[in-house]
Structure formats: structure tokens, C-alpha cells
Amino acid sequence: MSAASSDTTTVFTAHPFRWFLALLALLFFYREWVVISTPITLFYDEAYYLGWAQTLDWGYYSKPPVVGWLIALTTAVFGNAEWAVKLASPLLYSAAAIIIYRTAERFSDDKVIAAKAALFSGSVFLLMPLVGFNSLFITTDAPLIFFWCLCFYAFLRAKESNNAGWWLLAGVAGGLGLLSKYTFIILPTTFLLYAVLSTAGRQLLLNPRFWLTCLLALSFLLPNLYWNYQHDFISFQHTAQISHQSSSSISFSRLIEFWSGQLFVFGPVLLIYIVIRGLRRQPRSDIEKLLWSLFWPTFAVLSVQAFMARANINWAGPAYVGASLLAGYYLSQLKGYRILLIGLLSNLLLSMAFYHYGSITNVLGIERKWGNDPYKRILGWPEFVHQFQPWFDQYPDYKLASDSRKLLAYFGYYITPQDFKGVALSDDNYIEDHYELQYPLARSQEKRFLFISEHDVEAKLKRYFTEVTLLTEQSLPLYSNFTRSARLYKVSGFKGMTQKDKQ
């Protein structure tokens, strides 16, 4: 072994976890700096989830409860600042990366290979563009992926030792994963596929503790199912709706678009590398079979979803837990580090291009417009809402109301005082969001409202209220091709919903 090779090997045998924690801390504080300094203001889903967090429950309109619980925790400790609302996301992704590191450590009895696999897997996950993007926003993906990692790690340890403690942890993690996002239900198919590919997998399915663990995980859903029963299974209605909206026919173009998008989810270099490596030979080792089993079910299900109806590119996120582990496992067997370094650098540059998009376009002289700015949906909302503040100050006893979930979420957060229980006006009897479910106009005890809308709704409002006054119309130019605008009405004397409105 050459001196250079020996020195390189020493890097991975001398305190590799410290190197990994240093990278993790650097990325965590860098991303927090981006959130605070840019600033990355709230996306309306985040403001919407913050409204959920005001009333802890076992379920909410469109999602199980964990995202609301997390926001309630971080805001209870740090207040309602934007970074505090988002904080659980970078924390959970960081914790997930540590679990991935510890998982990959178990891939080999050779300490050098194990250290390399752990460091590479954890680094691939941390620098994945999906994680880089999602760390700036609190969504259901953060707890989903964290509990996915924790559940898989606990299953791996339980498979090795059959220790009751690891089986218990797997069940609890699985249950909390189901309470994070319903797509967690795909994870057990990992072990079904593993049983097809491996004798060890078949032995796992013969272990009664495996099935008891699955039952324990499913039991966590019972309170959420009861909540849904009380609300006509509204969460499942919503999930079915978004799974089938936008299209009712199969589409190869949607499938190709979804697959192409995965290059920017995981990173082009590393995704192409593991796919080529996987296609060149069938999985030989038991760990390869398990990791491909962790990847393929989620990727396949979402590919079918994209082909049959619609699938956002981020929905396959849990599959890239397996992909990160596969990349680390394969790269640890190579003598050089070229593919690893090129892959990680390209992923870092993709994330940085997103983080500093404004500065980059300024330097290059590129005009930002509605069609080319990834921040277009969050840009300018604090300033826009504050333009309406004088009227909310003038009428402090009037309740916030709207016909838009987006406006209720943004005005509820950015107006002073904050109002997370804005009243929703709907033209039909179909419940489309949390506000219509919990705070519909028909059930409101309030008598007077400040009604905000992006449209001219004066004629519609006069159907429901005896007094309707347009207070102001405000606009905020964001780009040369887009101006945000809304109208604020003062309304009172609710007449009630007509039979036509209820149909």
C-alpha cells in the first residue's frame, strides 16, 4: 500500500463520525443562515400547518397529525418566528442522516469499509438536493423520512439480534411514521420484496415478532382513524382526490417527466451511478438485496402513480433513504473517490444555486419573472399583508374571513394580531380545506368580518350579508409580468346559507 493510500485510509479509520458531525453541523447552520438572512418566508402550507398547531388533535383535514405537533413544539419553545416554525425540518433531516450513518456502519465487518460506507451514505443523504430544499420548509416529508430511517434501522438491528427492545422501537417508529404521512404504509413492502430475494428475508417473515411489530405500528393509527370517522374520513377523501386530479388517463410523458425529475431530487451523478451499478449485475450480497428492496417499492408505486394520474417529484423521497445507503455501500468498495466527490459537489452546487438564486441572477443580469423564479409563490407576502394592516387596526373587532385557504393562512400569520382561525366561505357543500372543516361561515358565532379575496366578490358577498363595503384594493408588483393584488371588504349581517349553497 502506498503512503498516499495509507494516509487516505487513515481519514476513515481515525474518527470518521467526527468528520461527519462536522459536515452535519456546517450544513445545518448554513441552511439556518439562508432561512434567516434571505429570508425564506413561510410558504402558505407552512402557515396553514401553523394554524393546525394551535389546536392539537389526532388528525387534520389533509394529513395525519405529526407535522402539526412538531410545529406546536418548536413554536412553544422559540415563538412564532418563521425560522422557529420551520425548525423541526432541518433538525429531523440531520437526525435522519445520523441514523443513516449508523445503519451503513453495519454493512461490513471490515472497519475501514464500514467507516467509509457510513461516512459516504450519511454525506450523500445530507447533500441530496431534496434534503437541501426541504430543510428550508416544514412539510410532512421531514417526519416521514426521519421515522422511515429510524424504523428501518430498528428492523435491521432486530433482524440481527431478535432483541425485543429493537422490535419495540421499530413498532413505535413505524406508528409515528404512519402518523406523519400515510405513504409510510409502503415501507413494509420492503420486507416482502426482501423475502422474495433472500432466504434471510423469508426467515424474517416467519418470525412472529415481525408481525407483532407491524400490528403495534398500525395501532398508532387508531386514534387518527377515529378522528377521520368523526369527520367523514376527510383525510382519505383528500388523499384520493390529489392522487387522481389533473388527469384521468395514462401518460408516458408524465412518467418520463417524473423520472427526469428524480435526477434533481437525488442528484444526477449519484443516481445514474447506482442505477448503472444495479443494472450491470444482480444484487449479490444480502445487504444489497435488502437495500434495493428499500428503494424499489416506493419508486415503483410512485412511478405507477405518475403514469396513471399525477405524482410530484418529491413524493418518492423515502426511496432515497435506500438510494443513499446503496450509494455509500457501492462507493465504499471503490479505490478512488472521484465519483463520490463529483456527485457530492454537483449536489451541493444544485442546492446553492437554489439558496442564492437571487444573488446569482443579479450577478448574471437575468431578470427574475413569474416564470423563472423558484421563490415566486412565497415572495412578498409579508409586505403585501402589511399593506392591509391599517384597516385591521381600524376594525379590531372584525373577524378575518376569506374564500381562499392561501389568504387565510398568510393573513392569519402576517397580520397583527395573528389569527389562525380565519372563517371560510364556501359556495358549495364540499369541504376543501381545514378552514372549511373547522371554521365555516355557517357555524361561526362572529357577526362582523373583514373579508379578503383575490377577486371582485362584492356581488357574491351581498348574497350572504346585508352590509358589504369595499374598504381597499391593494397591489404589490413582484415582477414585470406579475402583480399580486387583493380586495378587502367589511361585511356584517350574515343571512345564512341557502339550500342551493348547501348542495
Automatic annotation (TrEMBL):
Major place of residence: membrane
Subcellular localization, as worded in the UniProt entry: Cell membrane
InterPro entries according to UniProt: LipidA_mod_glycosyltrf_83 (IPR050297), RgtA/B/C-like (IPR038731)
Domain Glycosyltransferase RgtA/B/C/D-like: 62-227
Pfam name, any one: PMT_2
Listed GO CC annotations: plasma membrane
Membrane topology designation: Multi-pass membrane protein
Superkingdom of this protein's organism: Bacteria
UniProt keyword terms in alphabetical order: Cell membrane, Glycosyltransferase, Membrane, Transferase, Transmembrane, Transmembrane helix
Gene Ontology molecular functions: pentosyltransferase activity
Bilayer-crossing regions: 20-44, 87-104, 125-155, 167-197, 209-227, 258-279, 291-309, 315-332, 339-358
UniProt record, GO biological process: lipopolysaccharide biosynthetic process
PANTHER family on file: MANNOSYLTRANSFERASE YKCB-RELATED, MEMBRANE PROTEIN
Name of the molecule in the record: Glycosyltransferase RgtA/B/C/D-like domain-containing protein
